Amino acid sequence: MKPAPPSAAVPVEAIMARHIIGRAVFLVLPVLGLGWLLAGSDGAVASALGLAVVVINFYLAGKVLSLAIRHSLTMYHAAALVGFVLRMALIAGTMLLVVRFVEIDRVAFGISAVVCYLVLVTLEAIAVMRGRERNLDWAG
User: Fold this and answer.
1) Is residue 134 part of a domain?
2) pLDDT at 3
3) Which of 5, 27, 78, 99 has the fewest C-beta atoms under 10 angstroms from its C-beta?
């Protein structure tokens, strides 16, 4: 079977974002459990919201980079640099809004968001380094 031409292929960034989201499914129970153990049901809800904010951030990152690469490599680089800063601001802004309007455990919310972000990035980096992500066409 012939591989799809590069224009029809799914962008690498979108594939990586989907992989990270798929790995987040495995974090749901540990995050909920740890949040519940540390702060009860409020901690579990706050931890779940923290994970949700991180997953949405990764989805947006993949989407923005996939759209940018269709225009040019320069646009891709600009989206990667500026997009990272904007996404971090979006995470911080979202967290501030949630904390302001929803009564949740702030500590569990913040810690779960930071830890989940680092864990998901680390898992994806390890998978790529070990060659498990064979369906990524970096040259496309």
Assistant:
1) no
2) 44
3) 5
Name the DSSP class of 63: H
On whether residue 19 sits in a domain, the answer given is yes
Tell me how far apart the alpha carbons of residues 9 and 27 are, in angstroms, rounded to a whole number.
29
Half-sphere CA count of 60, side-chain side, radius 13 A: 15
66 assigned to some structural domain: yes
| pTM confidence score | 0.77
Alpha-carbon distance of 86 to 67, in angstroms, equals 16
What are the pLDDT digits (tens) for 9-52?
A: 667 777 777 888 888 889 899 999 999 998 899 999 999 999 99
Q: What are phi and psi of 105, to 5 degrees?
A: -75, 110
Crossing angle between the packed helical segments 106-129 and 12-71, to the nearest 10 degrees: 90
| Domain residue limits at 58 | 12-129
Domain count, the chain: 1
